[in-house]
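Consider the tokenized backbone below.
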């Protein structure tokens, strides 16, 4: 298909996907302004990717845009108007309309000096990649592609409209966006883009942790994050934003089945995503599981010990790794919930390997479930994904053993409420039986009963009372 036909087809497809665009364009035309569908909306339509959002650009200034859409939209918001953007909701779709931009950057700070432009060509030149620098002028149905983004789209190449050095100096976050698009779209960065990312990696330090975190999260939520992560690591950007990941290249896996722990972790991430999709195919991508899969072995380099005969061990790497994961996620401004959940999964991921051939007692199974809590389903996926041996017999044995553990958990859950393990006596009963007032001794007694519950399962009331009084007497607590 030649470019002329492709562009004509693109316009037809875009109009079919967005009948609202025609309606909105008519309003702008009546007001004496031009309206363009632009950027990711055009790119995704050409790729056959459906999106509920549409991006537009126009020669109208923001206050004028606001006036044009105020009576048309179901809802209008102007929180981005200082940057030239007005948002509109219409028939369940979210639209953003931004005035042509011609920003200037001091290349020291993080934010541009916002200035408005007068041409679509100038606006497209300032965009991040050529595949995002295509537009459709809606009144005339004209496809505008001054930087040959259509060819880049066909060839799956990420290149910049201006030189990559200019583009990344203006906004270093674009380097992370290159990695994100490599993951989301399966595109390859052009050699000159890779060179610029490598030489300018330090410029990412100008960007706030929140913006970095947002891009990394989008990258990890892609169908295949691996190409994006590899681009970050290969260019040195990974050393600036997620240094624990390239740091794993230093360690050799103890099973000698992988080139290094870094490659192993990328494989675990891919397998976790496969399990995520097969287990809950209609659910949203799981950022917590993916972060845990990527970071589960970050403690290995710090705990590596060489053994006689050429072996390597990583004792307690799960403890060190959980601490490292917590520190990095906190630096990236992730939420407390995400930080707690990811670090707990990293901490627990190795525990299953003590299960052996089923030697765990019911008490050990209860503790596994209780310590995982609401993370148990994710922990199941992480542990299964962590099996990356190429030895089919060994892999099958590991999966069979985990099947056995899950069956043990299911059997106990059928008899006990494993999801909410509580002592057989509550705080009020403890105080009444021991004749004590609220204080530390109540907490100690509660903890004792909780441990007893984990060890022996549910007790009859009289048995729990007898055990409590026996323990209290030994501790010199209360009237027992």
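A designed sequence for it:
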């Amino acid at each position: 298909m030649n470019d002329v036909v492709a562009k004509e087809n693109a316009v037809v497809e875009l109009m079919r996907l967005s009948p609202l665009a025609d309606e909105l364009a008519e309003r702008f035309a009546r007001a004496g302004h031009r309206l363009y569908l632009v950027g990711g909306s055009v790119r995704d339509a050409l790729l056959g990717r459906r999106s509920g959002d549409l991006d537009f650009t126009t020669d109208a200034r923001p206050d004028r845009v606001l006036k044009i859409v105020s009576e048309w939209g179901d809802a209008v918001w102007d929180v981005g108007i200082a940057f030239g953007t007005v948002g509109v909701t219409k028939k369940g779709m979210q639209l953003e309309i931004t005035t042509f931009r011609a920003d200037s950057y001091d290349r020291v700070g993080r934010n541009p000096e916002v200035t408005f432009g007068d041409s679509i060509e100038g606006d497209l030149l300032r965009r991040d990649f050529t595949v995002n620098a295509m537009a459709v002028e809606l009144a005339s149905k004209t496809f505008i592609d001054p930087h040959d983004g259509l060819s880049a789209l066909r060839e799956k190449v990420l290149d910049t409209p201006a030189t990559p050095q200019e583009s990344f100096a203006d906004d270093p976050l674009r380097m992370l966006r290159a990695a994100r698009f490599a993951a989301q779209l399966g595109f390859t960065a052009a050699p000159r883009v890779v060179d610029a990312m490598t030489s300018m990696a330090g410029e990412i330090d100008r960007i706030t942790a929140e913006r970095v975190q947002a891009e990394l999260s989008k990258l990890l939520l892609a169908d295949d994050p691996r190409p994006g992560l590899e681009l970050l690591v290969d260019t040195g950007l990974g050393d600036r934003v997620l240094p624990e990941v390239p740091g794993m290249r230093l360690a050799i896996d103890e099973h000698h089945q992988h080139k290094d722990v870094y490659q192993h972790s990328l494989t675990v991430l891919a397998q976790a995503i496969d399990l995520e999709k097969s287990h809950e195919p209609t659910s949203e991508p799981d950022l917590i599981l993916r972060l845990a899969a990527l970071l589960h072995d970050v403690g290995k380099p710090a705990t590596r010990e060489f053994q006689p005969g050429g072996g390597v061990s990583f004792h307690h790497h799960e403890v060190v790794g959980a601490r490292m994961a917590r520190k990095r996620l906190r630096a990236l401004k992730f939420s407390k919930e995400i930080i707690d959940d990811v670090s707990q999964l990293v901490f627990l991921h190795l525990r299953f390997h003590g299960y052996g051939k089923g030697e765990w007692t019911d008490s050990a199974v209860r503790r596994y479930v209780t310590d995982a809590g609401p993370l148990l389903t994710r922990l199941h996926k992480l542990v299964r994904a962590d099996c990356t041996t190429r030895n089919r017999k060994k892999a099958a044995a590991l999966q069979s053993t985990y099947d056995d553990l899950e069956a043990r958990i299911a059997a106990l859950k059928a008899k006990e409420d494993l999801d909410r393990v509580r002592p057989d006596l509550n705080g009020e009963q403890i105080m009444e039986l021991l004749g004590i007032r609220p204080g530390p001794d109540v907490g100690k007694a509660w903890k004792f009963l909780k441990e007893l519950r984990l060890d022996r399962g549910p007790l009859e009331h009289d048995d729990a009372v007898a055990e409590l009084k026996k323990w209290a007497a030994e501790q010199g607590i209360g009237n027992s």
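The mean pLDDT is 86.
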